[in-house]
């Protein structure tokens, strides 16, 4: 990959990601109802699903897109908040016994274990509603409408939800590369693409520049999921390893990330966050 990051730039990226997580968590803490507010159990479950969070990669991409546009990353906060709430919602619902049946999430009991099945469903639904409320916080009404519409497509039957449906019906014995990637692009990459594109919209970008961010997000998101496939090695689920050897999958990730970095090189020095995150993901290939 071009322009390998120096140790100083890597530290700068570390500092940026840590500050982004801190700002986002503070924002979401204020946006979500207090745990004591009625109905308390619902609000406690919502907060439980959101805090403590993971790496907050999707919000960081939104902030990185604003920086690529040479804008204040704070402009992308509504997009960052929206995508993280959708992500938290998806995890709470995916963990249900009727879906992926995961009792543990991020080292603690899943929402439906810590509370109950009904509360997990309702908490996830409430987080989804709040995500759209976040989109409406964008100062430009036209941008708010565009971002809300794009979020709808990213999570609807043609995006995250449709990808989950096909993932649950996945048959390893009858699959092709395009089948796996079609699921990964909707279930995972759609939200990554929304993050980067939405960050660009919030910073006032349009046309070709938004197209470049969109392409970056799709390539990065697909690469992210394939790295996850390599780390998990779970052949009971939809995985690139049903159609690629591990070495082929590694090569595919590198190709995707090279494509992603190429797309944002047009932004010049402002691409340092997005390009740095792509380079870091390449370094995580097992």
Task: Note the main attributes of this structure.
mainly alpha; 12 helices; 1% strand; 286 residues; Farnesyl Diphosphate Synthase; single chain
What integer is the average pLDDT? 95
Kindly report the spatial arrangement of strands forming the biggest sheet.
1-2
Residues in helices, as a percent range: 55-70%
Count of extended strands? 2
- The second-level CATH architecture is Orthogonal Bundle
The CATH fourth-level homologous superfamily: Farnesyl Diphosphate Synthase
H/E order of the elements?
HHHHEEHHHHHHHH
C-alpha end-to-end distance: 17 Å
H/I helix tally:
12
Shape: globular
Query: What radius of gyration results from the CA coordinates?
Result: 18 Å
Number of domains: 1
CATH structural fold name = Farnesyl Diphosphate Synthase
Structural class: mainly alpha
Protein described:
The protein is an all-alpha fold. It has a single domain, classed as Farnesyl Diphosphate Synthase (Orthogonal Bundle), CATH 1.10.600. It is built from 12 helices and 2 strands; from the N terminus they run ααααββαααααααα. It has helices at 7-31, 40-50, 57-68, 77-94, 111-114, 117-135, 141-155, 160-168, 177-202, 207-232, 246-264, 272-283; strands spanning 104-105, 108-109. A two-stranded antiparallel sheet has the order 1-2. A hairpin with a 2-residue loop joins strand 1 (104-105) and strand 2 (108-109). Helix 8 packs antiparallel against helix 9 and helix 9 crosses helix 10. The longest helix has 26 residues, at 177-202. The radius of gyration is 18 Å and the shape is globular. The two termini are 17 Å apart. The mean pLDDT is 95.
């Amino acid at each position: 990959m071009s322009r390998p990051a120096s140790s100083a730039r890597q530290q700068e990226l570390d500092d940026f990601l840590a500050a982004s997580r801190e700002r986002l968590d503070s924002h979401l803490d204020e946006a979500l109802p207090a745990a004591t507010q009625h109905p308390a159990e619902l609000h406690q479950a919502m907060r439980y699903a959101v805090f403590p969070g993971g790496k907050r990669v999707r919000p960081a991409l939104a902030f990185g897109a604003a920086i690529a546009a040479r804008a204040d990353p704070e402009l992308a906060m509504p997009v960052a908040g929206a995508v993280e709430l959708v992500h938290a919602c998806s995890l709470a619902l995916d963990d249900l016994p009727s879906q992926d049946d995961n009792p543990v999430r991020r080292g603690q009991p899943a929402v439906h274990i810590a509370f109950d099945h009904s509360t997990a469903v309702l908490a996830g639904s409430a987080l989804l509603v709040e995500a759209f409320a976040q989109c409406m916080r964008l100062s430009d009404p036209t941008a708010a409408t565009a971002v809300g519409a794009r979020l709808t497509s990213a999570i609807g039957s043609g995006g995250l939800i449709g990808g989950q449906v096909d993932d649950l019906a996945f048959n390893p014995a009858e699959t092709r590369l395009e089948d796996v990637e079609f699921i990964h692009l909707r279930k995972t990459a759609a939200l990554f693409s929304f993050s980067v594109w939405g960050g660009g919209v919030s910073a006032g970008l349009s046309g070709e520049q938004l197209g470049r961010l969109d392409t970056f997000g799709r390539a990065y998101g697909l690469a992210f999921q394939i790295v996850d496939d390599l780390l998990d090695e779970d052949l009971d689920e939809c995985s690139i390893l049903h159609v690629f050897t591990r070495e082929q999958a590694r090569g595919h990730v590198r190709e995707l990330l090279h494509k992603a970095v190429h797309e944002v090189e047009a932004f010049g020095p402002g691409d340092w966050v997005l390009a740095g995150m792509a380079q870091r993901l390449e370094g995580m290939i097992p």
